[in-house]
Amino acid sequence: LKLGKEVLTLDLASLDLGGAWLFWSKEPEPGPIASPGASLAASLEAVGQLAPVLVEPDPTRPGAFLLLDGARRVAALAGRGAPVLAVRVLPPEGEDERAALLRRGLIYLAANRPASAPPEPGRALAALRYFQPLLAPDALTARIAPLLGFSPQSRVWRRHLEWIALFSPDSAYERALRAERLPLDAVDLLAKLDSGERAALAPFFEQARWSVGNCRQFLQCLHEGARMRGERVTSALAPGGLDPRAQLGALAEGLSPKDWIEGVLVAVRRYRWPASGVLAERFGRLARELTAGTRWRLAPGLNFEKNGLTLSTHVADRESLAAAQASLAGMAGSPLWDRLATLAEEDA
Amino acid sequence: MIADCSQAPGAAGLPFWLRDIDAVYVDPSVRDAPLTRRVASRLGHLPWREAPRDGALEGRQPLYLKEYKGRFLRFCPGTRYYRCCGYRIIHIGENCPIDCSYCILRAYFQDRTLKVWANQDALWSELGKAFSTNRELRYRVGTGEFTDSLVLEPLTGYSRDLVAFLRDYPNVCLELKSKIVDLSWLDAARADRVLPAWSLNAPAMVASEEPFAASLEQRLAAARECASAGFRVCLHFDPILRYPGWDSPSDGYAATIEMIFDYLKPEQVAYLSLGSFRFLPDLKRVIETHSPQSRYLFNEFILGLDGKQRLFRPLRVEQFRFLVERLRRGGLDRQLYFCMESDEVWRAVLGRTPREMGGLGRRLEALAFGEEG
């Protein structure tokens, strides 16, 4: 990077502020400060512009400049009608347009990249979308991932790449991601669906906030349940099934998002595990009936692979042991034992 | 080049499932073995190299003629939690070029190298000792556990050598299990001590999951040819897959069963096994990567007693009943058995348990040796 030796004083009219390389200039500022713009304006008011912005000559407008870094400072100074202090970057001679765009983006990224942790997904995606058309895939990973604070081999970097291959910045999914209702970690499962399926599922992410675990379970159950049946995920979402609008109605009626998500997960698990889910529910009902009023618990043989039951209780002392014995004796004559022990055969 | 391959026929003379082989590696100790010379006469158009000590072989699908130093005669790796048929393995090599999507070998071996134990002298010596120690002791053996019994036969002639060797051991019954058709060994074998066997599946699964295997018609026509030559044959529905349409009369399991009786009489079948798809988690990853369109991979699989994933028991029983009912209708009953199933499943489907038949191993031994059992 070659810089001019003097600090220039420029008026706003000579500055082009619309460069695509200023990819984070319209992103919300990260960090805990509620209104960083106001804080910057107050500082400029008090002590003036301490750090010059970076500019380079506009090759299409003699005497004008392209802003390379410092968009927020320029915006704050413009509000005060003050001139802008700038340092000139000297572009290499004979550079083509693509190389110039890459260089400007790298300057902007170097000047603005986070000091430690990688940026949040919305900012990382904005940077990636700028650089992607300028670099081959391998070079994109080798050069940009470290600058953004990602390991090039990391899963989270791959997830970002998968995301920009699937979604545009104005998609419903990207809005959900930026609002932290949808985790980036679900993108590999979203990629297994076709665009129609993804569109049909989008309403599920309009309101409630999904954790990684819940979101992955939701998408995996739907995808695998549909594959198992040889149908599309949209079939599961038809009215009478998991219709997203009907599901969202429950939220509108005041159900808490946590309970709403739990209800949705129960429904998709039933879709994914129709036979084993029904049998487990039936077993649970009969077992509760048999052990009602006692501290005994019943479980089937491993996943119903074998007939028979596992019976368990917790005994703290001799008194509770005697109580457990008495309650077991009370249950012993029930015909439910035989039924529970061979329940998997009823289904066969 | 370490072998004289000047008379080799070239790739065009090979069956299509062997045409991916692009290099041959040989251990120095077996470079002059008869099997090596035989392979050289058929693969002379390929580069031949001495096998490197670190075992790293290059090529799309290398063939490795190896001096095997382990035990050739082994027990089948069944588990104590399910009923195993108790047969013994004659270990002649590893891996298979047919590349069926569900095959456990894809997860076991993780590369495409085809290994053949070329030190046959050591094999004959070990087998000779084992089979002659007590001539009253009967062995039901097979070579189709870690490879397909016949898939490399056009190159190695291994099964032909083996059936010829076993002519001197009437206490041994050999099962040759395959998904391709190669009957070049037939005239060297004792018809009453060799059981040609073919794995079968639903036509839809053969078409989508077994791309390099012979068609069902070819397999069953080969079985009929063996039966005509006096052999009894074995059939194996393993793995039975549950996918949308498995019960379709046109391309589901019913269609295959109907086809069996078009080609074979029940008395020509020594035994027929049924085994539901089961897998370790590694295999699921392999299938998802290499065969993402496979329709059977997502179903109600649960963790079985042996630590493998298998279909939920009521669904297995439903499929088994579907197949068994049709097989019985065609006249197959006493020959039916399950591979790796529990007594619960045996009783629910066949109405009997292995113990009630005197033990599965004993029962199959009797069927293999041509006794009613």
Describe this structure in words.
The complex is a heterodimer of chains A (348) and B (373). Helix content of chain A is 52%, strand content 10%. Chain A has helices at residues 36-47, 71-80, 97-112, 121-131, 137-148, 155-166, 172-178, 187-190, 195-201, 212-229, 233-236, 244-252, 257-272, 274-291, 318-331, 336-341, 343-347, and strands at 3-10, 15-16, 53-57, 65-69, 84-89, 297-300, 309-312. In chain A, helix 4 (121-131) crosses helix 6. Chain B has 373 residues and is of the alpha/beta class. Chain B contains twelve helices and 16 strands. Chain B has helices at 34-42, 105-109, 120-132, 153-156, 158-166, 203-209, 216-228, 253-263, 281-290, 313-329, 343-350, 360-368; strands at residues 21-26, 48-50, 61-66, 73-75, 88-90, 93-94, 114-117, 139-142, 172-178, 194-200, 233-240, 269-276, 278-279, 301-303, 309-311, 336-338. In chain B, the strands form three sheets. An eight-stranded mixed sheet of chain B has the order 4-5-8-9-10-11-12-16, with helices on both faces. In chain B, strand 11 (233-240), helix 8 (253-263) and strand 12 form a beta-alpha-beta unit. In chain B, helix 7 packs parallel to helix 8 (253-263) and helix 8 packs parallel to helix 10 (313-329). The longest helix of chain B is centred in the last third of the chain and has 17 residues, at 313-329. Residues 1-8 of chain B have low confidence and may be disordered. Classes of the chains: A alpha/beta (348), B alpha/beta (373). Chains A and B meet through helix 10, helix 14 and helix 17 of A and helix 10 of B.
